[in-house]
Specification:
The protein is elongated. The protein is mainly β. A hairpin with a 5-residue loop joins strand 1 and strand 2. The protein has one helix spanning 45-52, and strands at residues 6-11, 17-26, 32-42, 63-71, 85-92, 95-102.
Length: 104
């Protein structure tokens, strides 16, 4: 991932969270991909409180979905701009994992 990316979140009083992340990364072949990723996260209050304290929470308890949008000038990866994707996230104490699925 290149330096200069950013992510933001708005956490509502009920724990509903709106997420936005923007960043670029470079692949081994030199292609640069820009991603704008928008999502939401929500779950039971007690699980959200545990996440906020940095505790481990079963990802199955939390609804964490996103819609990544890709941009690139590299012809090999233009297909990323011609498809829709859904991300399924999991928040861990030390990281966020996001599995991205192409909508067929």
């Amino acid at each position: 991932i290149h330096q200069g990316g950013a992510d933001f979140q708005i956490i509502r009083p009920d724990g509903f969270t709106e997420l936005e992340a923007k960043y670029t990364f470079e692949l081994d072949d030199g292609a640069v991909i820009y991603i704008a990723n928008y999502g939401i996260r929500f779950g039971p209050k007690e699980a959200l409180d545990r996440i906020a304290r940095g505790e481990i929470v079963d990802p199955a308890l939390i609804y964490f979905r996103s819609v990544p949008k890709f941009e690139t000038a590299h012809p090999k990866y233009r297909w990323l701009m011609q498809n829709l994707f859904i991300g399924v996230g999991a928040r861990h104490p030390d990281r966020v994992e996001l599995a991205v699925h192409q909508v067929l």
